[in-house]
Amino acid sequence: LVSRKKKQEDTVIQLGETAIGGGQPVMIAGPCSVESYEQVRQVAAALKEAGITVMRGGAFKPRTSPYDFQGLGIEGLKILKEVASEFGLKTISEIVDPAHVELACEYIDVIQIGARNMQNFELLKAAGDVKTPILLKRGLAATIDEFVHAAEYIVSRGNTQVMLIERGIRTYEKATRNTLDISAVPILKQETHLPVLVDVTHSTGRKDILAPCAKAGLAAGADGIMVEVHPNPATALSDAAQQLNIPEFQEFLATVKQSGLL
Ligand code: PEP
Ligand code: MN
């Protein structure tokens, strides 16, 4: 069902005034984790000022270590909803438990399925049973074919509102956190009709190359870029090393816009 052979026209995900897919690319930004009302509010105000309409923020955090911050859970989704309605933003947040999918639809506009859960088939099925758009991340070691099949799980249950996001894959290379697979973008655009985005933060894991990687993603045909922004990254409860602070985000956005690709 996700194949271009089945449907030629691009799938477009409408989030209020913002359309993702087949047109003007979008910038999605926000903190790695929702940490507090005030933290999300500071980011939201900066995004609003920069003309960004879609904010991300993790409430359920799949962390490598069980001793690391695990997220605020439903409380985090409530914070996102409250702040988003104040600033007129749309929200994206990761859900990790199939039992939370329906409830999440009341608080957020897009449900993210994280890299670690790309082949959590019960979660994919639950995501397929709602109407809320889904942002599906590529698994850490997933082939493009496995990624496309994961999307098919969702669409085959009836939810056609699926976006794909390349977030880097594990290779032998240590210079970046993961290896951004730029070639996945044109391949996914050719082979599926779904919007394709690039997560520059989790793929590279380094602030100094976010802008060139975002430009590369857009030049390769991506429908959007995702980047993490935090009011004070040094104190962030997750991904402290690679989140941009607000002035850095403004500069990043200006650089990407200068390319004429966004
Ligand atoms: C995230 O986007 O918050 C995240 C955890 O990313 P990934 O699933 O790609 O590691
Ligand atoms: Mn993160």
From TrEMBL:
Q: Which keywords does this Swiss-Prot/TrEMBL entry list?
A: Transferase
| BP terms from Gene Ontology | aromatic amino acid family biosynthetic process; chorismate metabolic process
Q: Does the keyword Manganese apply?
A: no
Q: Superkingdom of this entry's organism?
A: Bacteria
Molecular function (GO) terms for this protein are: 3-deoxy-7-phosphoheptulonate synthase activity; aldehyde-lyase activity; chorismate mutase activity
Keyword NAD appears in the UniProt entry: no
Q: Give the protein's recorded name.
A: 3-deoxy-7-phosphoheptulonate synthase
* Gene name linked to the record: aroF
